[in-house]
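Folded chain entry
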Amino acid sequence: MENVTILNFLMFENLGYFRYIYFLLGLILYCTIVLFNIIIILAIFMERALHQPMYLLISCLSINSLYGTAGFFPRLLTDLLLHSHTISRPACHIQTFVIYTYASYEFTILTLMAYDRFIAISKPLQYHSVMTPKVLIVMVALSWIYPMFSIGIGIIVTARLRLCGNDLRKLYCNNWIIAKLSCETATLDNIYGFVVLITTVLIPLSFIMYSYVKILIICQKCSKDLKSKAYHTCLPHLVTFVNYSITIFCEMTFTRFENLHPTVDVILSLEFLIIPPLLNPLVYGINFPDIRRKIHHHLKASKQLIVSACTTFT
């Protein structure tokens, strides 16, 4: 059979006029995610007092949310409006790369946040000598470079496969599903994918769990005030970590099942692309007083500027 170069998304078929409702909901959701995360990024970068490792890593989390959703929502909204739902193989591999690296970056950034809190609580006097700006830049760079190369190689390996089918039962491109369409065995892809899974997900996941267990043990020996402060700074990170772990588990597990109801399949596969980018800004914006105050200050200043401009024109 001739090698397939165009892939077709089956999940968009037979939507009828519901496609316009889904488009509107998706557009509102995407605009909300972009707005919330931009507010967090601007609040942190425009305020010098927030240029600390913990807050800069929070901004990295928001930047990653914008990156990941940009790889999914524009294509989704376009497909909901068009009658043709095809995508070229190169474009499909690019979308896979963006979504996979987003998923991996989320874990590596959460790993750095766990390490930052571990140093801050276990070695408070040495914190600023350990978490220097130079060290933070190197750690963030490594947390982005390694997943980019490891996932990129995996996608290149999949791209060499000769495909005998072109139907994707997904709303976005997925390396595992593309490999299933191959005319040949994808043993190498499966082995390499398992190695990447261990190094970019399981190892960071284990380190995060280890760090927070150690933090909880250390907190038991602290005074009541220090314990309360430690719990307050760690709780948002734990909420983010647990939330993302659950959503990525749903994606990694249920994407292998082919007999799920389409609605259930869509919900479970999209959780990690919707819930964390939407929930993270709310968690950090509400739980960190410094961020909350700066957001309130900038929103108040913007409101006064708009009122002043309207008064001038009238």
